[in-house]
Amino acid sequence: KQEVTQIPAALSVPEGENLVLNCSFTDSAIYNLQWFRQDPGKGLTSLLLIQSSQREQTSGRLNASLDKSSGRSTLYIAASQPGDSATYLCAVKQAGTALIFGKGTTLSVSS
Amino acid sequence: GAVVSQHPSWVICKSGTSVKIECRSLDFQATTMFWYRQFPKQSLMLMATSNEGSKATYEQGVEKDKFLINHASLTLSTLTVTSAHPEDSSFYICSAREGSGPVTEAFFGQGTRLTVV
After folding, report:
1. Are A11 and A108 in contact (CB under 8 A)?
2. Distance from CA of A27 to the nearest CA of B (A)
3. C-alpha span between A98 and A110 (Å, rounded)
4. Nearest residue on chain A to B39, alpha-carbon basis
5. Along chain B (117 residues), what's the average pLDDT of each consecutive run of 10 residues?
6. Which residue blocks in chain A are alpha helix, DSSP H?
7. How many interface pairs between A and B have CB atoms less than 8 angstroms apart?
8. Which residues does residue A81 pair with via DSSP β-bridges, in sequence order?
9. d(CA B82, nearest CA chain A) in Å
10. Which residue of chain A has the CA closest to B90?
11. Per residue in A33-74, pLDDT tens?
12. Calpha distance A6→A91 (Å, rounded)
């Protein structure tokens, strides 16, 4: 059974820092991996989608990498801002299943 | 990206009553819709998968008679929580996907905060 783990569970950084969020999954047979942002009490905003054949995706200050063989992905946020404060969720897609989510990393960026 | 609208965004109901949550795909036809539940500080847990015109497939441990799912059209799925109890209080999120390919991206609604008092 696929399990998705995110480390750390929470992270606090001062504005301007670069940071890395980690995601690991136990079964490497995935179609894709997706990073989401969730603000308190809100739905999910898709940030980046990496297909299994890809190694990374970039969008603005965000860069996500995927190492499928080792079951790992990282989300890199450059020059963090207070507006980046949210919970970041990692999810994987396998054959015949819906997305399987990790518990998320709650990020707090202080000004 | 495509837009999925979920309504209501929050609802408070009395114990024993039923609550209906709607999920609509606004600019695409959703052949598959998913319903998730999220408890505080927990991950999203899949409750059921529904394909248009057929019965929903429920995950283990999810009571199909309590959580009624209807996917009558390609743009609308509903989740009805019947005889709600305080332990059903949670954040419910729907997701919709166009097509059936494995790499087809799913889009999420804004979520519904259900509080049963």
Report:
1. yes
2. 16
3. 35
4. A103
5. 90 97 92 91 90 88 94 92 96 86 78 96
6. none
7. 53
8. none
9. 23
10. A41
11. 999 999 988 889 999 999 999 999 999 999 999 999 999 999
12. 10
